[in-house]
Amino acid sequence: MSSDVHSADRSGGSNPIKGDLLVIAGATLYGVSNVSEEYFVKSADRVELMAFLGIFGAIISACQISILERDELRSIHWTAGAALPFIGFSVAMFLFYSGVPILLKISGSTMLNLSLLTSDMWAVLIRIFAYHEKVDWMYFVAFAAVAVGLIVYSGGDKTEQNTAEVGDEEVGTGDWDVASTSAAQKDGTEAATKK
């Protein structure tokens, strides 16, 4: 948002504050969606999650397009050139959302969202090298902040994971001692009563 304020080369929208608030709300809801999906991936069946995500996603998307984009949908002249981008987008989204639960199971929603932020750098590179346009210096600051966040999160995650594994081993050892002691006492009691 700050780069929009001091960049005079971009055309301003009719209501930039409203646009910024909508972007913030959308990003927040996307984050909530990813955290919820991570919870369900880690606590429920992944196949069931994907099935319901696909079913309800298709129903909600069909309702939205039939209500909000009815006229645009009617105006499309369906040719191979018009259909192929839709098919390509559908295949890309299918592959992306099929891989997301695996990443959520392994790394969590924080790593997913931080990783998605790095994809903006591709747009910056295309803008620089393909379109030969100038890029605001704030993009590089933001990318550096995201990269540092990824490194800090990845490093901190491994430390916490190792601590949790050591704690699990200690608890497991303690449970084994209690179980083996109980079994030995039970065997000793049975042997004493047989005599």
UniProtKB/TrEMBL annotation:
<dbReference type="InterPro" id="IPR052221">
    <property type="entry name" value="SLC35F_Transporter"/>
</dbReference>
<keyword id="KW-0813">Transport</keyword>
<protein>
    <submittedName>
        <fullName>Solute carrier family 35 member F1</fullName>
    </submittedName>
</protein>
<feature type="transmembrane region" description="Helical">
    <location>
        <begin position="137"/>
        <end position="156"/>
    </location>
</feature>
<keyword id="KW-0812">Transmembrane</keyword>
<keyword id="KW-0472">Membrane</keyword>
<keyword id="KW-1133">Transmembrane helix</keyword>
<feature type="region of interest" description="Disordered">
    <location>
        <begin position="162"/>
        <end position="195"/>
    </location>
</feature>
<dbReference type="Pfam" id="PF06027">
    <property type="entry name" value="SLC35F"/>
</dbReference>
<dbReference type="InterPro" id="IPR009262">
    <property type="entry name" value="SLC35_F1/F2/F6"/>
</dbReference>
<dbReference type="GO" id="GO:0016020">
    <property type="term" value="C:membrane"/>
</dbReference>
<feature type="transmembrane region" description="Helical">
    <location>
        <begin position="80"/>
        <end position="104"/>
    </location>
</feature>
<dbReference type="GO" id="GO:0022857">
    <property type="term" value="F:transmembrane transporter activity"/>
</dbReference>
<feature type="transmembrane region" description="Helical">
    <location>
        <begin position="49"/>
        <end position="68"/>
    </location>
</feature>
<comment type="similarity">
    <text>Belongs to the SLC35F solute transporter family.</text>
</comment>
<feature type="transmembrane region" description="Helical">
    <location>
        <begin position="110"/>
        <end position="130"/>
    </location>
</feature>
